[in-house]
């Protein structure tokens, strides 16, 4: 029997390796879901996990469970609570899907080791569940069951990636900002000029998505295990969305992947440095925020200049009260009365449209283009190979990942704009500073990917983390599959 947990670096079955399975939670195409576990056993809205201390305590590299929890070294990939209300309806359509919880341990070399997977189904009553726990194994039936459990986790993660991390948290939530900008900001307004390149082609690509991808009977319904309830699930999770938590530092703090540290430029310090999305992302975030701050201070000299900018106030009112009107009365919205609130809003918006979207979109072909690595699992109640989707669904899924991973031929990348976009010399100097900062980040990313001590940068699959490589130093038009760079906007 093959050892499912060990793969050599050039092995073509690296996707079966436990380290690669865990690494992709930090450096794959959905690196924003994993979080540090706050209490054991994990608790859901209606039930407590069936995972017991005895399931994991002998696999903590010599630590007790209490020590591991106190040191923030146990993590969870949680696809349980939000899925459970939908599982029965999903399975009524001939699918056998489970909600999942995966616990992982942070080792001394900053790699994650899977500890246990819990797969759950709804019980006979509304508030009960039926769960089974799977432990790592390398031989016999245990190994096959462990691989089976991992497949369900990646199927859950694939659906969450497409419906929430990708569609909802980038494409969908940006739309009200674009519409309000077109309606409330004149083309001469400085904030309109700042944001304009970050809205390129987004409304057009979203319209295409509604006709082909997320529509009833569309590609996502045909390929994801969530089927016809896909957009209902996405809409349900919109209820949890908060714009201020999409700021990268706030997101990392919420997931306990970072700690507050005023000494760091971003105000936070990663819990461990070998988190590729977090490490590269914080530098990109800070470069964007510095540029936005520099830009805004040219046009806004004090807080009153923001407070009494009628166009900005109308813009923000439409976003809050109309665009995201069902959340208008939530207390987390900025008041938009200070320069710092304007800067944080614009930084977050540019981050979502550029770097966040790049991190969840352009790696799809590399990771999801090989179905065993990111299975869609239309019928996962059979042995692993047999439970992959049919040839049509699989071909459709692969084609989709290839199309979505391509850069357009006229793409404009972060830190790159036509020279005639402004005649303000101070703004041009600040923008050059932004461009220079991004080029320095590029060098750091190359160095990190070459550092053998940073094991999460490449992993057993030997795929270096480049999803947040700015591509600023080579800003000529380029496109196609495998192109590098962070596009300014959600253009695909």
Structural description of this entry:
Its cofactor is Fe cation. It is an enzyme of class 1 (oxidoreductase). One of its GO terms (biological process) is fatty acid biosynthetic process. Plant lipoxygenase may be involved in a number of diverse aspects of plant physiology including growth and development, pest resistance, and senescence or responses to wounding. Residues 1-492 form the Lipoxygenase domain. Residues 1-10 and 377-383 have low confidence and may be disordered. The strands form 3 sheets. Strands 1-2-3-4-5 form a 5-stranded antiparallel β-sheet. Helix 5 crosses helix 14 (339-361). The protein is globular. Strand 6 (258-260) and strand 7 form a beta hairpin. By secondary structure, it is α+β, with helices and mostly antiparallel strands. Helices cover 45% and strands 9% of the residues. The chain has 17 helices and 9 strands.
Keywords, please?
492 residues, alpha+beta, five-stranded antiparallel β-sheet, two-stranded antiparallel ribbon, 17 helices, disordered N terminus
How large a portion of the residues is in β-strands, by DSSP E?
5-15%
Shape assignment: globular
Q: Report low-confidence residues grouped into runs of 5 or more.
A: 1-10, 377-383
Major pleated sheet: 5 strands, antiparallel
Q: What is the N-to-C succession of helices and strands?
A: HEHHEHEEEHHHHHHEEHHHHHHEHE
Helix coverage percent: 40-55%
Q: What is the helix tally? A: 17
Query: Given the helix and strand composition, which structural class is it?
Result: alpha+beta
Distance between the termini: 43 Å
Main β-sheet, spatial strand arrangement: 1-2-3-4-5
Averaging pLDDT over every residue, what do you get? 89
- From the alpha-carbon coordinates, what is the Rg to the nearest angstrom? 23 Å
Strand tally is 9
